[in-house]
Amino acid sequence: AGRDKGKLELADGGTLFLDEIGEISSKVQVELLRALEDHKIMRVGGTQEVPVDFRVICSTNKDLEEAVRAGLFREDLYYRINIFSITIPPLRERPEDILPIAHHFLQRFSRSMGRKATGFAPEAQELLKHHSWPGNVRELANAIERALVVCGDAEIRREHLPISAVNAGA
User: Fold this and answer.
1) pLDDT value of position 3
2) Nearest CA among 11, 49, 7, 12 for reference residue 24
3) Which of 7, 58, 120, 121 registers the highest number of CB atoms within 10 A of its CB?
4) Is 4 strand, coil or helix?
5) Under DSSP, is residue 114 helix (H, G, I), strand (E, B) or coil?
6) Residue 39 above 70 pLDDT?
7) 15-18 vs 55-58, strand pairing mode
8) What one-character-per-residue DSSP string does 116-135 give?
9) φ and ψ of 55, to 5 deg
10) What is the maximal distance between C-alpha atoms in the chain?
């Protein structure tokens, strides 16, 4: 009988992306560390180790060094995955990126939803640029998707966006 492969086994020979690595349980941290160190995994219910070889890319919005100091993240796993670190500032610190990212999501969601939105009205652009985006890119994507649902095939206007002028500082 065939078995379903787990994510680590499926990543064999390739790259595994682990989103929000700072949220994984201590049990999963141990299993991941073992796989990274030994290049082997044990399938659930299995009796033999399976060799795996993959690269791992992780993302997090947590300060993993602080999580290590607080005992919430394994220090050995932290040093194993922190070979090359890229820090991307939040959207509120790079307002020049907001509109290009919003246009990207507009095109992406327009295609997937079969819409033909024409772009953003000037007042919608101002609202997008001045919002603090506490939910970062995920919040921006959600806002654009919602705006497309509300506006249909028209230009996205201020009232289509789920952002209040108070929260945007506008």
Assistant:
1) 67
2) 7
3) 120
4) coil
5) coil
6) yes
7) parallel
8) ----B-HHHHHHHHH---TT
9) -100, 155
10) 62
Q: Residue 20 is encoded by which pair of tokens? A: 């929000």
Task: Provide the pLDDT for residue 1.
Answer: 43
Query: CA 3 to CA 25: how far, in whole Å?
Result: 25
Structure-token pair, residue 97:
């990126």
pLDDT tens digits, 49-80: 999 999 999 999 899 999 999 999 999 999 99
Q: How far is CA 35 from CA 31, 38, 42, 47, 134, in A?
A: 6, 5, 9, 16, 34
Residue for token digits 């299995």?
A: 46
Q: Can you tell me the distance from the alpha carbon of 48 to that of 50, in angstroms, rounded to the nearest whole number?
A: 6
Token representation of residue 28:
């999963």
Q: Which two tokens stand for residue 70?
A: 């607080």
Q: Per-residue pLDDT averaged across 36-49, rounded?
A: 87
Buried b (16+ CB within 10 A) or exposed e, 148-158: beebeeeebbb
Residue 61, pLDDT score: 87
